[in-house]
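Aim 2, interim progress: modelling of the 2,6-diaminopimelic acid-bound target.
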Amino acid sequence: MRVPFTKMHGLGNDFVVLDARTQELPALERSRVAAISDRQTGIGCDQLIVLEPSEDADFRMRIYNQDGGEVEACGNASRAVAILHGSDARIETAGGILSVSPAAGGASVQMDEPRFGWNDIPLAYAMDTLAMPVGWDMLDDPGAVNVGNPHVVFFVDNTDTIPLDRLGPEIENDPLFPNRVNVNVATVESRKRIRLRVWERGAGLTRACGTGACATAIHAMRRKLVDSPVTVALPGGELVIEWREGTSIRMTGPATESFRGSFEWDDYA
Ligand SMILES: N[C@H](CCC[C@H](N)C(=O)O)C(=O)O
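Predicted structure of the complex, ligand included:
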């Protein structure tokens, strides 16, 4: 079966988007997701995105990490799908309902309120998620935020000096995080600007992470280090995050359609 796809990215965090709203697709096994996502032997992407019909929203967006695992949220993909859809939409995800509005060259995304309870992240045992008494090597005193998916946030003097390729997987897979975790290392440059690098659960180092930018901005606001809105500068570019305690999160930034193609379903088992 020939399957059309759209290759997209948000600040270099890239996606293969399959539209199952009009074309029925067989179930996606982990191995097939990993094969399609593989940059050497497959099409290559950080996440595989599948659009489906929805009872509760305009459509549903399923998100699969490069390792084949299905997850709850993907901020950059939400903006990419918004421009693909071409008009305002409510999108159902496993992490909640999103409202997206495409604009010139990008989109803004309204997401559910963040959650901070230790068992909402989730963590394996109770602790204060605003100042967690844990550390790994030079990374300590983190915060944890769930923005549909789980994030841990460390503030450091200079993000470029952190060996995230080594510490990222160690923290991602630590038993403290029963669902694993996305690892954010951030430098607060001013009350209006944060620099961020992310080791993503199930995808590794990416050029940008939309939910990571949201989680990091919110944690910095909770610690009174930045104001809202704040600009988050990732290796791939900048996002603007707005949030007030007790309200939903708004993320605004670019998204791009790279190219369209098709593949033979049975080529990726
Ligand atoms: N790795 C993330 C999913 C993708 C998030 C990232 N690509 C974004 O833009 O939010 C997770 O396992 O929760």
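The chain has a mean pLDDT of 97. Residues 13, 46-47, 63, 65, 71, 73-76, 149, 182, 200-203, 209-211 surround 2,6-diaminopimelic acid (CB under 6 Å).
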